[in-house]
Design brief:
The two termini are 18 Å apart. The chain has an eight-stranded mixed beta sheet with strand order 5-4-3-6-1-7-10-9. A two-stranded antiparallel ribbon has the order 2-8. It has six helices and ten strands, in the order ββαβαααββαβαββββ. It has a domain of 107 residues: Dihydrofolate Reductase, subunit A. The chain is of the alpha/beta class.
Length: 184
């Protein structure tokens, strides 16, 4: 069975996006970029919902991304990417496939490959649906030392209790804390 990781950064009060999908509050310094670069070396298939995909595709293939975070940009652009959407009809970010079928069944099928490692980036509704189905093997959350007045909560739409066990933690100089969990 393949491995599915949910990776997200959130505020202290649990938002992964601010108003109008704003993520400018995330502190992505040199250490955090190093962590992201290391993760790109794992060559995981990246999974997105439409909104997160469109946001990522508007930044990572740009000259600005290549200048600001060359290793991360290279990894993002070269990685296999899957976007789950019932409305998106075409994509132009290299190595991207659209899956319009049932999310849970599609991920079950993808996980049937024992060598496949997949990482969900952002995409809170996808994380909630796959958590509900018991398909996520690991949760990595970067918690930024900031609180927002409003936004989109992580795990929005989750209808059941999700018990997790802390397996690792890391503190970055910026004050960001990375917590890694696996389901009980």
């Amino acid at each position: 069975m393949g491995k599915l990781i949910a990776y997200n950064f959130i505020t202290l009060n649990g938002y992964y996006k601010g108003p109008d999908n704003d993520i400018s509050w995330h502190r992505h310094g040199e250490e955090e970029s190093g962590f992201a670069s290391e993760n790109m070396e794992a060559k995981a298939t990246l999974l997105f919902g439409r909104v997160t995909y469109e946001m990522m595709a508007s930044f990572w293939p740009t000259p600005m991304a290549l200048e600001q975070m060359p290793d991360v940009a290279k990894g993002m652009n070269e990685s296999e990417k899957i976007v789950f959407s019932s409305t998106l009809e075409s994509v132009d970010w290299e190595n991207t496939t659209i899956i319009q079928s049932d999310l849970v069944e599609a991920v079950r099928e993808l996980k049937s490959d024992p060598d496949r490692v997949m990482t969900i980036l952002g995409s809170g509704s996808i994380i909630a649906q796959l958590a509900e189905a018991g398909l996520i093997d690991e949760y990595q959350y970067m918690i930024d030392p900031v609180a927002l007045g409003s936004g989109t909560p992580s795990f929005q739409g989750l209808t059941r209790k999700l018990d997790l066990k802390l397996t690792d933690s890391r503190i970055f100089k910026s004050g960001v804390v990375l917590l890694t969990y696996e389901p009980l």
